[in-house]
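Tip: read the tokens left to right.
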């Protein structure tokens, strides 16, 4: 089966050149044999017919009425001897016989054959049926020992002697002639016929080859294009599967982080505002407020403590809400988003942030804008809490759909291995960016910390 695989691996043009070439050669050989055979028969027949017509015109007047004569009379035989033994006819003819329908030789220039009877062969039978028979071959008949002894092909002709008024063959003239030049004529006819068949086959094959080559080239181009498309689709399918697995993992991590966020918010509410409100609730039931004998100054002081606790609870609730609620950034540019986060951070922490913005590209998707807002907000908070807010810098570049945001400080840095998987800061940023198809990177050390996020154009478009 290896040969079959190798054969199928060849191009259509190559298969055609091999198979078509072999078939064309075989067809040329068969057609050449047939055409050559037909031409040879035609040449031999025409040559024999011309000679038979000439011999018949010379010999027929010398023959008696063959329908009534069983043998030639002495005068007719002598006339034939004189005619066939001299002149142009005598030089051309090697032998001459006159046959009766039962196979008896009525006359021959070989006198020992006269009166003998031989088996009627197919050539003699066809001649008595009225057909001219011509052969160019070495004599092989029993009565042709003299001709066979010459050892070369001779023109053998059987010409029927027809009765004038009925057209019936009453005798057959058989003669052999040297047929000088006939061999050369047959050779030339063979060469020309083979040349013609070969030329026609070559032309036909070349025309088909041109057509097949053009079709093969088109098919190969389409096959190559289809293969490239299949490879592209396979690559896209593999990438899609990878993205699906990536999205699934990101969804699982985001669900876990959301649960952590909820627990964190619950802890902040419980440890902060809830404690102040509970304190105020307990003070509302104190004896100082219930007892009518409590001095007004003491009562007022107690109410002041309650109001102070409730005010602190409201302040902490507002601070928690301010970190959860996003401003309207869907229609804002990257420049406006970064400036808004930096301004809020500077106001909250009373620190200075250097800002570098290069925004000349198309606006990213709203999800990316939210991601940029949260990234800068969380990175600056980490820079303030863990880096002391020393030389905080925000750099944002948006060019032709490529978005790159970098937040850095010159604090003491931290050990990335100490960041817990359940941490909401860096882990949350990484998961948010990864879910949108971006890349996240952290570099930290004694010289400070740099946090970057990047979105490529195609991924931003998604």
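Filled-in amino acids:
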């Amino acid at each position: 089966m290896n040969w079959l695989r190798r054969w199928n691996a060849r191009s259509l043009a190559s298969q055609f050149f091999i198979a078509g070439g072999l078939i064309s050669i075989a067809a040329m050989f068969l057609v050449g044999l047939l055409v050559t055979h037909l031409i040879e028969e035609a040449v031999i027949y025409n040559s024999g017919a011309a000679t038979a017509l000439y011999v018949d015109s010379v010999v027929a007047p010398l023959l008696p009425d063959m329908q009534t004569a069983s043998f030639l009379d002495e005068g007719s035989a002598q006339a034939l001897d004189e005619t066939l033994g001299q002149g142009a006819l005598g030089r051309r003819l090697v032998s001459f016989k006159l046959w009766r329908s039962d196979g008896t030789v009525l006359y021959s220039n070989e006198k020992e054959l006269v009166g003998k009877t031989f088996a009627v062969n197919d050539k003699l039978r066809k001649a008595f049926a009225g057909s001219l028979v011509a052969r160019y071959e070495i004599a092989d008949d029993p009565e042709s020992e003299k001709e066979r002894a010459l050892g070369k092909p001779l023109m053998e002709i059987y010409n029927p002697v027809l009765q004038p008024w009925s057209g019936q063959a009453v005798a057959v003239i058989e003669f052999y002639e040297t047929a000088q030049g006939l061999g050369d004529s047959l050779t030339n006819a063979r060469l020309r016929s083979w040349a013609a068949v070969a030329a026609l086959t070559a032309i036909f094959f070349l025309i088909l080859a041109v057509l097949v080559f053009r079709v093969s080239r088109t098919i190969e181009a389409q096959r190559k294009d289809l293969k490239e498309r299949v490879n592209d689709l396979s690559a896209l399918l593999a990438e899609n599967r990878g993205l699906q697995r990536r999205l699934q993992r990101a969804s699982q991590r985001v669900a876990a982080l959301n649960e952590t966020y909820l627990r964190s918010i619950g802890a902040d509410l419980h440890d902060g505002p809830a404690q102040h409100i509970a304190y105020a609730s307990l003070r509302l039931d104190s004896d100082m407020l219930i007892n009518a004998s409590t001095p007004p100054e003491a009562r007022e002081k107690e109410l002041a403590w309650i109001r102070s606790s409730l005010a602190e609870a409201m302040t902490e609730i507002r601070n928690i809400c301010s970190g959860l609620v996003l401003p309207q950034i869907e229609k804002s540019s990257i420049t406006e988003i970064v400036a808004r986060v930096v301004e809020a951070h500077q106001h909250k922490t009373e620190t200075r942030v250097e800002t570098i913005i290069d925004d000349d590209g198309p606006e990213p998707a709203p999800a990316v804008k939210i991601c940029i807002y949260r990234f800068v907000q969380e990175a600056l908070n980490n820079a303030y809490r863990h880096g002391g807010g020393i030389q905080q810098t925000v750099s944002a570049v948006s060019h032709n759909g490529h978005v790159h945001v970098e937040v850095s400080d010159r604090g003491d840095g931290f050990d990335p291995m100490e960041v817990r998987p359940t941490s909401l800061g860096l882990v949350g940023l990484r998961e948010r960016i990864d879910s949108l198809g971006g890349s996240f990177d952290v570099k930290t050390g004694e010289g400070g910390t740099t946090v970057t996020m990047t979105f490529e154009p195609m991924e931003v478009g998604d």
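The longest helix spans residues 182-271. The mean pLDDT is 79.
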